[in-house]
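Exercise 7 asks you to align residues with tokens for two separate proteins.
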Amino acid sequence: MLRSTCARIFNWGGKQLNVSPSNIILITGCDSGLGYALSVFCHSLNMTVISACHNIKSNGARALQNLNDSKRIITIELDLLKPDTIRNAQHKLKELIDNNPDYKLTALVNNAGTMCFGEYEWQTWKQIEMQINVNLLGTLRLTKELLPIVRQHHSRIINITSHCSLMALPSLSPYAASKAGLKFWNDALRIEMQKYGVEVINFVPGSFVMSSNIAARQQDQAKEMAANFSIEQHKFYDDYFRRFNEHLKIISGFKPPNQMQDEELLKKFEHALTNSQPKSLYIHEPLRYKIYRLLSQWCPPVIMDFLIVKFVNMPTYHQPSEEERQPVKTKSLKVDGS
């Protein structure tokens, strides 16, 4: 027991476990980005992959269905806001295991998520609830449904959280709240499940918003925010709001599915998945993330707040001019040229 504990602390020992088609991995959020990349990667490891996609007819789902040896990759539709699709995922998994007695669930990877950029006052309650319901409550619902199978097979649960769970950023407060909640749930669940032989792992990937569709609807989200502004909010925020969302155009719009070319990230994921002594926390980050995260542990809040503003490098608010302060009867904000 002591040796095992020391191995986890210092990452000593541990051997790579062999995987084969009898090892099932269920991954959520596979339409694009990290989920799609992990599906392709696990398929290359010779595992049987259940790729849960939000839209079974999406380009990502179709691309996965067209991979060689399609019997080892199964695409299912999963909407974490719809309990019936969660139950269907559990049914599909159980059916696969029942029909193949030598198969076992090796890992559940909770990757699906959604993100909305915008200051807290701007975001509508619908947008706030969406992030909490998908990122946190949806993950909890799916995991609870699958826990009996996970426990019986001594599977691993790999929860994809975020750097925002370690260091919250402005303009992402509901997203950060959902990911921080996921992190603390992960930590408690890890302790609970250890005695049943179940590993629960927190996997924090680097920033990959440019290669995923997690913020693809940002300009539509901005229009929804603007449509719910009061006259006073329009007067106060319009110029700043327009510049803010102009800056975010680069991440908006749906991108084709792609296999992320980040070998270091995939190497860490493989360690989390197949090492006999996995770490409880994996962090994959560029150097600047590491620097800011370390600084946040030592700097007083007033300094850290200043550094975070520099870190995010977003447009800033400017006091409106006297002309902008004049009363207006109606004013509509146009975003993305609409």
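Second protein for Exercise 7:
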Amino acid sequence: MIARVKDIKTKDNLNIVEFDFNNILLKMMSLELNKDLKIGSKVELLVKPTSVAISKKYIEDISLSNQALAKIVAIENGELLSSLSLEINDTFIESIITKESSQRLDLQKGDIINILIKASDLSIYRILND
């Protein structure tokens, strides 16, 4: 996911970084930051597929910082897990959830779903040159 750093808040060793990802606000919590990271920096963000939770609806009262709408473009069901290929504004990400959860939510290709990512599960893969 390509995003731009919108804000950086630091207290002691803790950093909260806000990103603009196609007009979607994402937040990351980190103990260490690259010294070259600045407000306005263009970055590539990374999240593990197992850290991308799925909801059929937007959840208002929740501690997770990151929510965004995504379209399911493919679902692969294994014996225990389901791998979902998701598209957000021409960016593709993957979510891995239990097959039971996929069936309980009745997830189908083409569904618009809500993805949820904890701020501590989002990381900067690299800083990009403009």
